[in-house]
Structures are given as C-alpha cells and as structure tokens.
Write a structure and sequence with these properties.
Blueprint: H1 13-16, E1 23-26, E2 33-34, E3 37-38, H2 42-51, E4 55-60, H3 67-77, E5 86-88, H4 89-99, E6 105-108, H5 111-119, E7 124-125, E8 132-135, H6 143-154, E9 158-161, E10 167-169, E11 175-177, H7 179-190, E12 195-196, H8 203-212, E13 219-223, H9 226-235, E14 240-243, E15 258-259
Parallel strand pairs: 1-4, 1-13, 4-5, 6-7, 6-8, 8-9, 9-12, 13-14, 14-15
Antiparallel strand pairs: 2-3, 10-11
Helix pairs in contact: 6-7
The site of magnesium ion (MG) has 8 residues, from loops.
C-alpha cells in the first residue's frame, strides 16, 4: 500500500531515530488534510500504522463538527476512523461544561458545536444571561453576537474557549481565520481571559490516553503546529512529531522531531 520513495532523511537527526509506537494521536487540519484535500502520503501512512496494530486516534482543535461528521469525512478520504477514535475541542468543552454543571451556555460557534452540547444534555441560550460563554470557530460571527456575549460576561458568566488557533490551513496553503481570532475579540471587549479547553492544554490528549489505555511515552502526537500540537504533547508528557504540511513552514525549534511529511513515521 505504501510506495517506497527516497527517504526524507535530510531532516533532523531525531526523525531518523523514529520508532514505531503502540499508539498515535494525529492532528487533522494541516496534518492529514487541508480543507477537503487529503495531504500526500497521509492516508497510506496512517493505514500502514493501523495495519501493524497501532491504536490510532484523531484530535482536532476544530470545534465546528461532531465526531460523526469528522468520522464521515476521514472515512471517505480512506482513513481508518470510527466515531470513537475522534476527539475535539468541542467534545472536550462539552465534557468540561457538564463537569462544571453548566446550567445555561451562550455559544459563539458553529451549528456543530451546538449539536455537540445538546448531545451532552447541555442547555444553550440566545439570551444575554448565561453562566458560561463558550467561544469557538464561528463563521456567522457578528457584532450583535459579540455584544450579546459581552452582556453575558458582564452579568457574571465565565469565559471558555474551545481553542486559540488564530488561523488554520485550507486547500493550496490558504490560511483562514481560526477560533483564536474570535476569542481575541471577546477577550478584548470583556477584558477577560478565556479558559482554553483545546491544545496546547493537555486535557484532550489525556482523555485519549485514558481511552487507549496507554502510557504517555507510548503514544506519539503528530501535528503541524508547534504552539498547540507540540506544546500540548509536551504538557501531557507524550513524544511529539511536527510535519511541515500545515501552518509551520520551517522547523526552527532546536531539538524538535520533525519532517517534511508523514513518511518519516514509517522509518525505523
Ligand atoms: Mg493542525
């Protein structure tokens, strides 16, 4: 399935020492796909690792889609991706709000985030009173939405962000504004600092480690962003590998394991 090509060995020494891990956590945008295009070699590499018996999980900071929708998209591209192999900042936020016994949540987010919350039995409101304001990627973001979020916060609501990625990569390297751009607006208006659920916080990775029943050192976290993917792996004490197929074009951080694309994961 995987066609052998010349090794991408001009990359870091660390990536030459790449070994097989019992488990892998893959980021999505910029790591496995850009928009609706799978990234070169990604489908082959992930299938090969799965065929060798590795446990595969997918973790995205994108809160706009349910696990079912993401599973459909990945499966259509050819990835082995059952619904329970997928976790996101949206699911993590729902878990957080349930744990904190949220009574009503004002959401600045995509319909998918509303769906996730409702599947967790969490009540959302359009009113200017809530005990939490949850901000994620929101393609229908307006001044009015910002205003209502602000009124909730001035009324005592706590501010939660799914993630703070300022951009994410689409087809042909085009960058689109991410949730972090919207969180910044809400933070600026309110003077508050959001509690972040997604990467770089380690919570989502820790959830997957528990689900996989693997130790942090046995799971390689693979992503395209140093400040989220690699940082959250570090905080969760997992090894990490950076690929340059997304937002990071040059690996400048010394000591980082990195490669141009995912083929290096099969070197050992
Ligand atoms: Mg990414």
């Amino acid at each position: 399935m995987f066609s052998k090509r010349s090794p991408t060995s001009s990359f870091s020494e660390i990536s030459k020492e790449m070994r097989r891990y019992p488990g892998y956590i893959f980021d999505l945008d910029g790591t496995l796909y850009r928009g609706s295009d799978p990234i070169e070699y990604a489908v082959e590499v992930v299938n090969q690792l799965a065929a060798e018996g590795a446990r595969i999980r997918y973790l995205t900071n994108n809160s706009g889609y349910t696990a079912e929708k993401i599973s459909e998209k990945l499966t259509a591209m050819g990835f082995p991706a059952p619904v329970d192999s997928i976790y996101s900042s949206g699911l993590g936020a729902a878990e957080y709000l349930r744990t904190h016994k949220a009574k009503s949540v004002f959401v600045v987010g995509q319909p998918g985030l509303h769906e996730i919350l409702s599947s967790y039995g969490i009540r959302t409101t359009q009113e200017s009173r809530a005990d939490f304001v949850l901000v994620g990627i929101c393609r229908s973001f307006t001044y009015d939405l910002l205003d209502r979020a602000l009124q909730c916060l001035l009324g005592g609501a706590k501010l939660i962000a799914t993630n703070k990625d300022t951009t994410f990569p689409l087809e042909e390297g085009r960058l689109a504004p991410g949730a972090g751009s919207i969180v910044a607006a809400v933070e600026a208006a309110s003077g508050m600092k959001a509690t972040v659920i997604g990467k770089p916080e380690p919570t989502l990775i820790q959830h997957l480690l528990a689900q996989m029943n693997l130790k942090p050192e046995d799971v390689l976290v693979v992503g395209d962003r140093v400040d989220t993917d690699i940082e959250s792996a570090k905080r969760a004490q997992c090894p990490a590998h950076l690929v340059l197929t997304g937002v990071t074009s040059v690996a400048s951080t010394a000591g980082l394991s990195w490669s141009k694309d995912l083929r290096d994961l099969l070197q050992s």
